[in-house]
Amino acid sequence: MVLASLGVPLMTGIASDEARTLHTDRMADLSLFVSTVPFAPDAGDVEVQTLERDLNRYEELYGISVTVYDAARRPRFSGHDDPTTALNPAEDAALDTALSGRLTEVWDQIQPWDDEPLVAAQPVVRDGDVVGAVVSVSPVDRAANRVLQRWSILIALELVAMIGAVALADRLARRLLKPVGRLDEAAHQISAGDLSARVPTGSGPPELRRLETSFNEMAVHVQGAVEAQRAFVADASHQLRNPLAALLMRLEALNLAAGMPGTSPARQTEAMERALADGKHLAGTLDRMLALATVENAGAPAVLLDAAAVVDERLAFWMVVADRRDIHLVRRGIAHARAQHDAGALAGALDAVLDNALKYSPEGGTVTVDVRPVALFPPTPPEPPPVPLAGPGSSSVLALVTDPPNPPRPVDDGVLVTVTDDGPGVAAEDLPRVSDRFWRSQDAGQEGTGLGMSIAKTLVERHHGTMEVDTGEEGGLRVTLWLPPVPGPR
């Protein structure tokens, strides 16, 4: 469309320019003949012979016939042998125009297929009167050929430009569609079950490169979710098989005992209580499994929060459990610590860690929760002794603020929340497995599902935090939660 919108006007201009050039040339030649026409009364034979010779020579050289007419429309001089030939309509109209004292008009265009000759006429004026006219009849085949040649060159150039545009468009389309083809192939592989399929990145327009990166990230999340689901189903089926089998055996034994004569009520009651305990254990396992599935697939966005305030709020909640088991809760560290996380997720992770610490700590034991920024401070005075915050008769919930009165502004690298208990701890070779699903230490003396620490790890890592488990300085288990810092300038 662009080439046509440019080429058609240009071709029209070429045809018009050729018509104007031809008409201008004819009118210039006729002006020379007009000045030499011997219409004066005293014109001699020499002038007449000279004019006729020039007209003949002009027709021989250029193939253009020129005829001189008088005011009565009679042919007086001509370059061909039969000047009395009848005029065609074009010649008659041109002669009328010249005898009226006007010049013939220019043709609009000369097309390559035109074969009608160009008729031009100019009046012969003597003493202010039109005494005759000079009429020329010019063939236009040469001009038409020139138009055809120029049109051919223009069409050839436009064809070259079109071929180049098509080649460029094809190359551009292939460049644009190649990443789309890779995306289609990878999507087909994933839909066929190959979750490891990925799209090669680094080529194509920026928008498609971003799409490739987003597609790969989506594929990673999909693969992780499917693998987690498979692992969850496998672990759940493994963990539920034994408790369910035990419950069925107890129910069967209870049924048999009820039908046997002589079975004491105490024995029946004991069997019922054992079956009830197995059912409760199975229900608890299912509840924790549902909680783990929930935290893995939902969550609020990370926001700016005071991690120390969340810790204090959860410690207040767990004071009742600590009082019932006569366990001391000790709070150390700073009073305020800004971090980037979700308050609900952090509270859930702390609940799981504190539940585990209180469950395995002995009566009269201590669970210490320390909140500190990950930053370097200059040396500070020795820490003062903990100050009890709870009243007499309750567990000692202690707080210790270590910030100096006017501390320098540190380079914020997040917040550490450390929970340490003085329970039996875990063997060094088993520490990496503490946060695995359904894993429980063989030496554990408490009933559990083995899902609490896995839930805590999932909740902390939801917003790029981390959880590490190791052995405390005085035994027991130490769980360290790292919360990412607040982005941007402080």
Q: Which overall shape is indicated by the principal axes computed on the Cα atoms?
A: rod-shaped
Main pleated-sheet profile: 5 strands, mixed
Strands across the major sheet, in which order? 6-8-11-13-12
Top CATH class of the domain at 299-483: Alpha Beta
Poorly predicted runs: 376-381, 387-396, 398-411
The percentage helix is: 40-55%
CATH-derived topology of the domain at 299-483: Heat Shock Protein 90
CATH homologous superfamily assignment of the domain at 299-483:
Histidine kinase-like ATPase, C-terminal domain
CATH architecture of the domain at 299-483: 2-Layer Sandwich
N-to-C span: 59 Å
Task: Compute the CA-based radius of gyration.
Answer: 53 Å
Order of helices and strands: HHEEHEEHHHEHEEHEEEEHEE
Based on secondary structure, the structural category is alpha+beta
Number of strands: 13
Strand content: 15-25%
- Mean of the pLDDT scores? 79
* Count of DSSP-assigned helices: 9
Characterization of this structure:
With about 500 residues, this protein is α+β, with helices and mostly antiparallel strands. Among the domains are: about 1-145, 2-Layer Sandwich (Beta-Lactamase), CATH 3.30.450.20; about 300-485, Histidine kinase-like ATPase, C-terminal domain (Heat Shock Protein 90, 2-Layer Sandwich). The protein is built from nine helices and 13 strands. It has helices at about 1-35, 45-60, 90-100, 140-190, 205-260, 265-295, 305-325, 345-360, 450-460, and strands at about 65-70, 75-80, 120-125, 130-140, 305, 330-335, 340, 365-375, 385-390, 400, 415-420, 465-470, 475-485. The strands form four sheets. The chain has a five-stranded mixed beta sheet. Helix 4 (about 140-190) packs parallel to helix 5 (about 205-260), helix 5 (about 205-260) runs antiparallel to helix 6 and helix 8 (about 345-360) packs antiparallel against helix 9.
